C-alpha cells in the first residue's frame, strides 16, 4: 500500500523527519510518500497559521491523486485541515492528534500530551476533549517554538524533558504523548529514559492507516464528510472549485 504524508507547513526538514519516523514503523509492503506544502507558514502555531496552511495541504492531496495513494496522514499535531481533507478525499485521512490520543488510550488510564507553545496547548486541549479523552488526558506546553525543534543547539530537548518530568510528577501521567510532529525523532529515546509509553503521532497514524486500508475501510461519504458540492470558487481560490464526480 502507499501512504502519503503531507506536512502542511513549508519546512522541508520537518517533512523528512516525519517521513523517517513513518518508514521506521511501516510494514514491509508499505511505501511512504512524503510531501511538503508549497504555500503557507513555515510552522503552524495556533489558529491563524493553521487556517492559512489548509489551501497548501489540500493542493498537495489533490495534485498527488494522479500518482495514487491508499491513505494520507496530515503531519501536524493540530490536525490542521483534517475535516476538509476528509471531505475532499476518497481514502482514509488521519491526523496526528487523533491517532496519538486514541493509541495512548489503549495503553494508559491517565496520560499527558506535551506540546510546544501555550497557544497550541489550548487548541490541542480542545481537540483532546473533542476526541473523547478530556477526562483522561492533560495537555501541557513546554514553551518551545516549533522551529527550535530543528535546532540541536536551541535547548528545546531540555525544555521538553523538564515538562515531561513535571507531567509524571504532578499529573500522575502513565504515558506521554508528544504533541508536535517536530518531536517525532525523540520518542524512543524518551521512552527509554522515563520507562513509560511515549506515543508519537506519526508512528501511531501510520499503523492506523495500514489497519484501515487492510480492513478495506475508508471515510464515510454520507453526511458530514460527503464530497463538496460543485460550485464556483472565485479569486485566488478558483483552483479549488469542486467538480461534479461521475460514477
UniProtKB/TrEMBL annotation:
Signal peptide: none
InterPro entries with a match to the protein in the record: Asp/Glu/hydantoin_racemase, Hydantoin_racemase-like, Iso_Racemase_Enz_sf
Pfam families the record matches: Asp_Glu_race
Family membership noted in the UniProt record: Belongs to the HyuE racemase family.
PANTHER family per the UniProt record, alphabetical: PROTEIN DCG1 (PTHR28047)
Name the record gives this protein: Aspartate/glutamate racemase family protein
Organism: Rhizobium changzhiense
Upper classification of the organism: Bacteria, Pseudomonadati, Pseudomonadota, Alphaproteobacteria, Hyphomicrobiales
Amino acid at each position: 500500500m502507499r501512504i502519503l504524508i503531507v506536512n502542511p507547513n513549508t519546512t522541508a526538514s520537518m517533512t523528512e523527519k516525519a517521513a523517517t519516523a513513518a518508514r521506521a514503523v511501516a510494514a514491509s509492503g508499505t511505501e511512504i510518500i512524503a510531501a511538503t506544502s508549497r504555500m503557507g507558514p513555515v510552522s503552524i502555531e495556533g489558529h491563524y497559521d493553521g487556517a492559512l496552511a489548509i489551501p497548501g495541504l489540500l493542493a498537495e492531496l489533490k495534485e498527488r491523486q494522479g500518482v495514487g495513494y491508499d491513505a494520507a496522514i496530515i503531519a501536524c499535531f493540530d490536525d490542521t485541515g483534517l475535516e476538509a481533507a476528509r471531505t475532499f478525499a476518497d481514502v482514509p485521512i488521519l491526523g496526528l492528534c487523533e491517532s496519538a490520543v486514541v493509541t495512548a488510550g489503549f495503553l494508559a488510564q491517565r496520560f499527558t500530551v506535551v506540546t510546544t507553545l501555550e497557544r497550541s496547548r489550548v487548541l490541542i486541549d480542545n481537540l483532546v476533549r473533542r476526541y473523547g479523552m478530556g477526562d483522561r488526558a492533560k495537555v501541557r506546553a513546554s514553551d518551545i517554538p516549533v522551529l527550535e525543534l530543528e535546532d540541536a543547539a536551541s535547548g528545546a530537548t531540555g525544555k521538553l524533558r523538564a515538562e515531561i518530568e513535571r507531567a509524571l510528577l504532578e499529573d500522575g501521567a502513565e504515558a506521554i504523548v508528544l504533541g508536535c510532529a517536530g518531536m517525532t525523532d525523540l520518542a524512543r529515546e524518551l521512552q527509554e529514559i522515563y520507562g513509560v509509553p511515549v506515543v508519537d503521532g506519526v508512528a501511531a497514524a501510520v499503523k492506523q492507516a495500514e489497519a484501515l486500508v487492510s480492513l478495506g475501510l475508508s471515510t464515510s461519504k454520507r453526511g458530514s464528510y460527503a464530497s463538496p458540492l460543485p460550485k464556483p470558487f472565485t479569486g485566488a481560490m478558483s483552483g479549488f472549485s469542486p467538480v461534479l464526480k461521475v460514477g
